[in-house]
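Hi, here's the filled form for the chain we discussed.

Project: internal
Contact: R.S.
Residues: 236
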Amino acid sequence: MEENSLRLILLGIGALILLAIYGYDFFKKKSLRRVEEVDVVQEDQTDHALLNTGGFSAIPADEAVDDNVSTADEKDVPLIPADEVLDMVEVPHDEQVPIASQAMVVQLIVLAKDGLPMKGDLLLSAFSDLGLKYDDMGIYHRAEQLDDKCLPLFYIANRLEPGTFPVGQMEGFESTELVLFFQTSATLDAGKAFMEMLDVAGDLSQRFSATLLSDNMEELSIEKISSIQLELSELA
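And the returned structure, exactly as it came back:
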């Protein structure tokens, strides 16, 4: 008798424990559902408020404006930037002329001393003596014959804007800066182009008592010449 009563008591306690666990789980799930419903309502209200008050604006990337960028026109600079001299040259789109995978631009600058300009008629005479040819881009170049094509070795331009030489009006023309340059390619003998360009630049600097500079506007040194030759040899 006592054993049966004890069993009934234990079964009752077990049943109460199960009911308690079930009730706790039920009320917990119900509470979570209420919280989620409240969050959804709040999000909907927030989105609605933003749309109505203009608090959110989607601007396409291509229409975004940088506050740090000024739209005012900058004052014209009389010198052509060194990294833009190649824009003066029309590169031919010839599929038969391969381009070097790592092209290098080499530049030398002839700068008049004490701001004394180089006269146009004297420049014209010097260009003729040095075998430089005038082209339809308004600048001069030296070329070599390669098979059936005439391949420019290097170019020479006026470093003062607009960068060209008025070949028909050279008597009234003058310049204080000249830039000689070329870009390496698979068909160009860069070593030869550099040495010939160096000779011409040196000749011009002597004729006009000018200073010969590298692309960073420092006086050309033996070390800089060797550095350029090394870079060109590595591209070969």
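Let me know if anything looks off before we file it.
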